[in-house]
Q: What sequence folds into this?
């Protein structure tokens, strides 16, 4: 059996972090770490080297867009894929961020999130 | 598959573009890498999941039906704490509305909608979404009414998991107990 994929969930709402960690770990496919904001997310990304980062967009310190851009500019994190999960995205949207990462709605289904994470895991890494 | 291209970076044109039927929205300037990746995604998606339409969003009535909220059993222990923190978030929403800060009100309402949705509180999520949509233009009385309906919902909601009533927990001690009768 394959080992579980290491994920980092970044969200400033502790309840959102809790529900995502619980539900994603329940699948048995992921090991979920969390960070409470963009700053902490950047630090955790460097130390944990997650395989995928699931990040909120609207956060008070460093927002999701800045987080993704900074990850990309940092050699040790440049190839880590990001999935944005935001309440600002409507459930019927299947958009992408200007950086090309998927943008999902917090109101959408968990299955969509899981499917997207697994697609990112299966893809060859982007070149930095 | 339609990929929309625009120089607008903000949310509104993106939302309109997606609403009009684009599958993906990219903002210019688009790097070769992003464009190729998007096309690759599109092809992969098309192969992996032929003609899977987005799940239709159920219409959630404006009035709270009082139907039980069914949550994931794994969240049963934390729902009391969640309801407590959402009450605090509604207080913050009320203060923001009181100060007439409509932009921040919209953002707060969106955030609340997201957290309610993830937990399985469908009506509260839809009501917060409606509040976010109306935050900039609606009469203050209308928004106050919505806020009151949300507070009432949190006071009276029947939370269940696996057919068992979880009811509400006091955020201070985490003990679950039946909701107090009001009125």
A:
């Amino acid at each position: 059996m394959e080992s579980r994929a290491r994920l980092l969930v970044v969200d400033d709402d502790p309840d959102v972090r809790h529900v995502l960690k619980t539900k994603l770990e329940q699948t048995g496919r992921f090991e979920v770490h969390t960070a409470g904001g963009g700053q902490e997310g950047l630090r955790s990304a460097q130390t944990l080297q997650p395989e995928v980062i699931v990040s909120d967009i609207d956060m008070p310190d460093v927002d999701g867009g800045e987080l993704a851009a900074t990850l990309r500019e940092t050699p040790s994190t440049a190839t880590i894929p990001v999935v944005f999960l935001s309440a600002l995205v409507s459930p019927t949207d299947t958009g992408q961020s200007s950086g090309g990462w998927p943008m999902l709605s917090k109101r959408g289904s968990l299955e969509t999130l899981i499917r997207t994470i697994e697609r990112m895991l299966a893809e060859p890494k982007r070149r930095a | 598959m339609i990929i929309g291209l625009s120089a607008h970076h903000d949310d509104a044109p993106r939302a309109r573009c997606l609403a009009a039927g684009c599958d993906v929205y990219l903002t210019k300037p688009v790097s070769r890498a992003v464009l190729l990746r998007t096309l690759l995604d599109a092809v992969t998606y098309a192969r992996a999941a032929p003609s899977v339409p987005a799940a239709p969003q159920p219409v959630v009535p404006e009035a709270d039906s009082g139907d039980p909220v069914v949550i994931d059993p794994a969240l049963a222990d934390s729902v009391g704490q969640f309801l407590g923190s959402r009450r605090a978030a509604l207080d913050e929403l009320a203060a923001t509305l009181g100060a007439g800060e409509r932009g921040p009100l919209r953002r707060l309402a969106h955030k609340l909608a997201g957290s309610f949705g993830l937990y399985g509180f469908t009506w509260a999520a839809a009501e917060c979404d409606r509040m976010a949509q109306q935050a900039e233009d609606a009469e203050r009385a209308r928004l106050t009414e919505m806020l009151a309906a949300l507070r009432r919902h949190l006071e009276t909601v029947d939370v269940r998991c696996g057919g068992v009533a979880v009811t509400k927990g006091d955020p201070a001690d985490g003990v679950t107990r039946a909701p107090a009768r009001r009125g």
About this structure: Residues 69-177 of chain B form a domain with the Four Helix Bundle (Hemerythrin (Met), subunit A) fold (CATH 1.20.120). The radius of gyration of chain B is 20 Å. The first strand of chain B starts at residue 3 and ends at 6.
